Amino acid sequence: MRRSGELASPSPLTPAPSQPASQRRSDWGTLRRLLPYLWQYRWRVFAALLFMVVAKLANVSVPLVLKELVDAMTPSRGQLPTGGDATAVAMAVVAVPVALLVGYGLLRLSTSLFTELRELVFSKATQGAARSIALQTFQHLHSLSLRFHLERQTGGMTRDIERGVRGIESLISYSLYSVVPTLIEVGLVLGILAVKFDIWFVWITAAALVVYVGFTVSVTEWRTKFRREANEFDSAAHTKAVDSLLNYETVKYFNNEGFEARRYDQSLELLRRSRLKSQTTLSMLNTGQQLVIAIALVAMLWRATQGVAEGRMTLGDLVMINAFMIQLYIPLNFLGVLYREIKQSLTDLDKMFTLMEREREVADKPGAQPLTGQEHPAVRFEHVTFGYEPARVILHDLSFEVPAGKTVAVVGPSGSGKSTLARLLFRFYDVQQGRITIAGQDIREVTQASVRRSIGIVPQDTVLFNDTIEYNIAYGRAGASRAEVEAAARAARIHDFIESTPRGYQTMVGERGLKLSGGEKQRVAIARTLLKDPPILIFDEATSALDSANERAIQAELRSAAQNKTALVIAHRLSTVVDAHEILVMDGGRIIERGTHLQLLARGGRYAAMWALQQKES
Ligand SMILES: Nc1ncnc2c1ncn2[C@@H]1O[C@H](COP(=O)(O)OP(=O)(O)OP(=O)(O)O)[C@@H](O)[C@H]1O
Predict the structure, then answer these.
(1) Which pLDDT does position 13 carry in this prediction?
(2) Same domain, yes or no, for 410 and 295?
(3) 568 shares a domain with 547
(4) What pLDDT is stored for residue 364 in this prediction?
(5) Which of 385, 398, 419, 577 to mutate to test the pocket of ligand 1 (most atoms within 8 A of CB)?
(6) Ligand 1 pocket mutation pick from 151, 410, 420, 538 by most atoms within 8 angstroms of CB
(7) Claim to verify: residue 497 and residue 554 sit in the same structural domain
(8) Region entry Disordered: which residue ranges (predicted)?
(9) Residue 239: pLDDT over 70
(10) Considering only CA atoms, which residue is closest to atom 10 of ligand 1?
(11) Nearest protein Cα to ligand 1, atom 30
């Protein structure tokens, strides 16, 4: 028999490079980790087990009734008329045992009925557990640091989560729906054989089972590595495909469709080879299993036919034993798949749990309280030293203050660390030395949510959700009314553009907002930050994608939005920051000059040179 589950089975299991086998928890550990999710459905689990036992009892009774039926229809030797009286033989077999037939039908029906009931009762538990685990993983991923998200490979990671969730379903269905019922059935059948017939039947069945299980487990263990390999190649191919499609435009710019296809095909070829290996070894497993089953069946039938020939057993017994064997070996046929799928589900689950347990690099301190006094907060960087990697310091002993309600501008060459200031203020990373305070409180001492609630940013590169323009603007403040969304869009000078499109605010912006121009995207980002209306604002080259006319208009809006707010403005175009309270000139992660526009001009240093250059250009 071909195990349909084999080919159709999910393509799980890739050991994470970050999680070597030695660090994996044991299978029992994974099960223990899963139990709390099922515990809340314990009554359902209990009811499902009960239905399962009833279904199995009914199933095992079917061959017993079949035996009675056959025996009732077979005249015993003593009953058979002598002298070849055909009418008497016919008379002997006409008495149809209606009660047995009805019983047979009812038993068959109850087997299916209780199996369905078990499914019905239990699927709520399986789906519920899968849902809570998927949700928790999602929430945890959002709580992980920016570093994790910059390093992750989206394609592979989403595949891991998919497999983990599917792993819960397969684990439960394979173990609870297949292994446990089969064990119950084996026990019942062995019991019946032992009570009703000679011990040989028990020995043959038990020996066949031992050989069968031993063979299946060892061969499955051996061929698991081929499956694992196939899954690794599957993940790699998926990662490549996702990455390539995400970079669709770049691929076109460089005419690299052929290159991308070749790269993808290399992964597919590796996948094909390892899947072939997996398939060949599966055929070996199947053949071996069939051999064991065939030998056992022949041995049993030999004993049974001998029994019938010697008059110790009836024809009904023979039929019953045959029916038992067939009933028993059908589920056993799937043992290889079961064993492997269960092990695989456990590995997939373990991988997902590992993702869930991944430590947060930036975490709230136990008992951290929300930020207070953020109506008019001052922001201070005090002797901040920071590097994304230990080997490379980006900010060196940096100190400055953005006084409450004032605007401080940061200018300087590309890569000098300006945007890093914004990331640190948002607490995407923790500083290595020094501290950052908002309203006098170290941001590491208060909750991250309260820090982020009090800050609004218009980032350098805006990425939008693949949804409507309205959704993207309203994202700034949950529950904002349409009128508020429009007011923000007007202030960001994007309302007229939106109204001019056929679908207006319902226009879909496309994957990462790519259906909008750079300037339109930036204005949507400005609108949603204006809608958020936080006490601290960061404009990280907020108008860099706009033409000069639009930039001037929006600058006026931004200035009025920043009025009475604590604002950090990162800019390349110096003309946009001339009236800042203080301007910091950064280079190589250090503040090399600071002062007002006029002071810096008078100083005749780097700022004055940059100003002169930009004036000349414009
Ligand atoms: N996640 C990261 N991991 C490692 N290095 C990073 C990371 N992000 C930024 N850097 C490095 O930190 C330095 C400062 O980056 P930052 O984005 O703060 O520069 P910037 O002054 O804002 O530049 P620009 O004006 O071009 O936006 C850069 O050299 C950059 O390569």
Answers:
(1) 26
(2) no
(3) yes
(4) 86
(5) 419
(6) 420
(7) no
(8) 1-24
(9) yes
(10) 388
(11) 415
Count of domains observed in the chain: 3
Pick the last residue of a domain from 297, 322, 357.
357
Least confident of 149-158, 374-383, 428-437: 149-158
- Percentage of the chain beyond pLDDT 90 is 24
* 165 and 273 together in one domain: yes
Nearest residue by C-alpha to atom 13 in ligand 1: 415
Nearest Cα to 345, choosing from 33, 17, 19?
A: 33
Mean pLDDT of 244-254: 85
4 lies in a domain?
no
CATH code of the domain covering residue 402: 3.40.50.300
DSSP secondary structure of 180-241: HHHHHHHHHHHHHHHHHS-HHHHHHHHHHHHHHHHHHHHHHHHHHHHHHHHHHHHHHHHHHH
> Which of 22-31, 375-384, 556-565 is predicted most confidently?
375-384
CA of 415 to the centre of ligand 1 (A): 5
In terms of domains, do 209 and 300 share one?
A: yes
CA of residue 532 to ligand 1 center, whole Å = 26
Closest residue CA from atom 25 of ligand 1: 414
Among 494, 512, 533, residue at a domain's last position: 533
- Residue nearest (by alpha carbon) to ligand 1 atom 28: 415
Whole-number Å distance, alpha carbon 313 to ligand 1 midpoint, is: 86
Residue type, 510: G
Give per-residue pLDDT as tens, 103-162: 888 988 998 898 888 888 888 888 888 888 888 888 888 888 787 887 776 666 777 788
User: Does 4 score more than 50 pLDDT?
Assistant: no
Buried-exposed string 77-93: b where 16+ CB fall within 10 A, e elsewhere: eeeeeeeeeeeeeeebe
Q: What is the pLDDT of residue 23?
A: 54
Within-domain flag for 5? no
Looking at the predicted structure, is the pLDDT value of residue 321 above 80?
yes
Q: What is the pLDDT of residue 155?
A: 67
Question: In degrees, to the nearest 5, what angle opens at C-alpha 44 toward C-alphas 39 and 46?
Answer: 85
pLDDT for the residue 24: 60
pLDDT at 9 over 70: no
Q: At what angle do helices 27-39 and 98-143 cross, to 10 degrees?
A: 100
Is 314 a domain residue? yes
What length is written for the chain? 618
Q: Does any domain span residue 249?
A: yes
- Residue 405 in tokens: 């309600």
The alpha carbon of 531 is separated from its chain's Cα centroid by a whole number of angstroms, namely 32
Q: Which pLDDT score is estimated for 165?
A: 84
Nearest CA to ligand 1 atom 18: 417
**Residue 75 confidence (pLDDT):** 66
Ligand 1 center–CA 593 separation, angstroms: 20
Domain limits at 411?
368-454+534-618
How much of the chain is helix, strand and coil, in % rounded to 5?
Answer: 65, 10, 25
ipTM confidence score: 0.96
Instruction: Kindly list the protein residues whose Cβ atom lies closer than 6 A to any atom of ligand 1.
Output: 150, 388-389, 394, 414-420, 460
User: Max CA-CA distance within the chain?
Assistant: 135
Question: Which residue's alpha carbon is nearest to atom 7 within ligand 1?
Answer: 388
